[in-house]
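ingest -> fold -> write
write: protein_1
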Amino acid sequence: MKKGIKNIELISTLKSLEIIEKQIETPKNVLKDFKEDIYSYIGQDSETIRKRMDGLKKEDEFLLFSLMLGNILQVTRLEQKRYIENKLIIPDFLFAVKMPEQVDNKKPLMALRFFVEVKKMRKGEDEFIISLKYYEKIKAYAELYSLPLYFAIKMDNEHPAWFLVLSESFEEYGKIQKRKVNGRIDKCFVIKGVELLNYDYSGILLSNYLTLIPAGLKIDMEYDNISKKGYGEVISVKSTYENDFKKVKFNDKNKVLDSIFLKICNYLKACNHIKGGYAEIIDENEKNTKWQNNIDFWILHYHLILSCYLYLRNQCEKDKNPENINNISYYLETFSKFDSTLVLMIRDIINEMEQKNMIKPIKMIPKVIKK
């Protein structure tokens, strides 16, 4: 293999090969030798390479749900190759989004452009750490183009969440401490994971928001049958905050909207198994299951859309790729008009649930621009 290729380029190639293998039928082991050569050239153990590939897949996850939220006008993935060696760090993406209402109330469509660097908190840790040297190099790159820089940060704990944080937030609210980064002690910005929500711009720039599922919500699902093997087809869904259950209907002959609605309801029920509060099944018989939400709890809007999309998309891919569970990179690269339509339907159902007061949207305004 020709020398001079950077490891990050090769790791990106490995990720692309995984997607290609799922898109086309290739003879067994046809790419095996080539992939082994790449592993050998990189010179790191397979676990380290896999972790670096996972880092690239986090970029795909952030990009996929950002597209689903519907506020992006254009996005460009930036190559990490530099033609002038000035020791600057190139961000992952260049975004262009619709100008937020909080910034511009004029009718003509205007674009707000900014760079995005994707990062992840270490699994199980409650702090985000970034070295000052790294920060200064990537911030200098953004300043060359006079564009703001945001960090898309994933908090990877029991309840994963993404935050879009303006770089200046670290300077204003972060603490400078000496921490171990990449095997050495260095000066770093340190900020608590729970505080990232205060500085999150995903609501303003990407149309993300908090979804409140209020205590007292009751949902009654009627199936054609319920057995030990599981639930049958949904016949009807009713919901209420009081005792008078009202049927939830959608004008949908193919029952696709009903399937989406059912998935969302099941997801809300599953998400609520936290800190002693949970969605309790209050009645169940051979055809009905009725559950009640016992506490107020919140879900990030992007998470609701993404989880529903992945579930439904996996159902479509079962025959083609039965092992392809939550393969976000694959879905991003093969995103088509079908996927766009599916996402629009999911968003329509969520909007209708909001109109029926089953769930309540709550805007997220970052601390740095609160009046």
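write: protein_2
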Amino acid sequence: MATHQSEDSKDPWKYTIVVSKFVINCIEVAISKSFGVLIPVMINILSTNTKTIGLACSMPSAWMNIACPAVAYVLKTGVLTPRMIALIGAFLSSAFLIAAGFTTSIPELGLCLSLTGVGLSMGYFSSKVMLNEYFKRSYVLMAAVANLGSATGAFIAPFVIERSLEAYGYIGAMLILSAFSLHAIPASATLKKPRDRPSKPAMKDDNDDETTGSEEKLARVEDDECISKEEPKSSTGCLTNLKEWLKNCILIKEPLFTMALPCLFFTSVCLNAWVLFLVPRAEWHGIPSSKAVFVSTAGGTGGIVGRVFFIALLYFGANPIVLSCVFFMLSAVTFLADPFITTFPVMCVVSFIQGWSVFSGNLALPGYLKYSVSDENFTMAAGIYGLVSGLGGISGGFLGGLIKDATQSFTTVFVGIGFGFCFLEVNALLFLLALRRKQKKRANDL
């Protein structure tokens, strides 16, 4: 489908990298889904409103993505290895998640959860880059397998945290959530580069100095008169620099990637809003919290089943972009039907379907990244991908809470998510058409 002709690594350690990515994904979603259980308690403890707490609780997921360009830059410079970056991040995220449980104000909570997200970003992004290093050809399939960790976290964490909240209170539940995060330490320790890939030299070649020196020498000789290559800076020079920057800008070099960015943004908006407000919505309908948590568990179960089904389809050669179109449409229908979903059994069934479709649609996003950029631009594109997803995460939590406070209705929030998926459907179809056109043009050129 794409032009990436590199083969997968033969190093057997590649399967350990998949497990590590699985664990890190599990931790990230476990934290996000757990806040869905904790939000009603946090509103009372911190004396705040849904809008503000929704924004604060979206910080870990948001900053995990927003910090990706910075992590990408550090990886590209070779200052730290992926393993070292991930280990620092694992300690950082766990420490500040522990601190978040003892905060008494929204600014303190927001700061701690933001730094938790920065720590998560170091492991999340490093493991993503390592996965691409080991699986050049089958990256989309292996990313889908590793993303089963997200559905596993969504399935297990809300139930555990809800029981912990009853047994140990808010602080105890936050400490147990921090224990989830500590599992990122052994996962990070496994990240190392494949043995059968040539290591990229961090230092310049010895000939670079000679080349640089020769460029600084006289450019040409005319009539025995030396004319220096250097010229005073002028507006023409600034224009040339701007043109050069635009020429090398990844958003211009990779137009398909630019076209995919709205899809990445709104998928994150819809996913984060659904994850945060699924349990509070059930409680808003009068369902006790001890039962409402099972609505979230049903969503996590649907996510696991849907992802296994999605991986099977990918294995047999299905197009992930086409699959995303199907799942975006299914998600739109279930969310737009929210006014008719008011009883506990129906909520559980619909949550299962939504978990299947929302998580499966999210699983297709690595395909948008892989098929829209070349291998040499993958690291920086993945960083921008994370940034856009993070901004979407913040927007999802904040806008969901804002709509709830303005309308006093979670139904309006979920119908809004449905319209978001309608936009995603249109964006995905346009991306698919552009991708097919590009592939057809490349085939004709050959």
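write: annotation protein_2
The chain has one domain: 14-194+252-445.
The first strand starts at residue 220 and ends at 222.
pipeline exit 0
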